[in-house]
Amino acid sequence: MAQADRLAIVNGKRVRATAAQVNAGHTLVAAVKGMAHRMVDFTMIALGGSAATATSVDIIGTRGAVEVRLAVVAVAALTQSAAVKPNSTSVTLLADGASHTALDENTAITIGKQSGGSNLATATHIDCIISTASEKA
């Protein structure tokens, strides 16, 4: 059966990550033995102020044993209390729907700041409401 034809149950989870957790990298969806996660949708919301100093807040997965940025959300979009969705301005997804395809088996989905660069500041927390499907690998 082709990957696109697999039946999967979609799960939703809300994670409130502190700025320090985002800067260090924080697990949104834990790895599950024998399963491959696939991001279906997300919403990000800056709390306690607008996001600043970092370039972006990213949703990160692993594909082909390499870190991939499933969603790159520019801090300009993360104004306090604004709901940022995948189709919002200042959000970059992988080409050809690759942000929504299965990741490597036994790997987590995390949130973090852009690779290298300045730490996230001003916003005290980032809420990430993420919908995923977990499929047998």
Report the radius of gyration as a whole number of Å: 14 Å
Q: In terms of per-residue confidence, which ranges show pLDDT below 50 for 5 or more consecutive residues?
A: none
Distance between the terminal alpha carbons, to the nearest Å? 12 Å
**Count the helices. How many?**
1
Most strands sheet: 5 strands, antiparallel
Fraction of helical residues: under 10%
Order of helices and strands: EHEEEEEEE
Biggest sheet: strand arrangement: 2-7-4-5-6
Which shape, going by the Cα principal axes? globular
Supply the helix-strand structural class: mainly beta
Mean pLDDT over the full residue set: 94
Strand content: over 45%
Descriptive overview:
With 137 residues, the protein is mostly beta strands. The protein has 1 helix and 8 strands; from the N terminus they run E-H-E-E-E-E-E-E-E. It is globular. 28% of the residues are buried.
Concise synopsis of the structure shown:
This protein has 1 helix and 8 strands. With 137 residues, the protein is mainly beta.
What tags apply to this protein structure?
137 residues; mainly beta; 5-stranded antiparallel sheet; 3-stranded antiparallel sheet; 1 helix; 4% helix
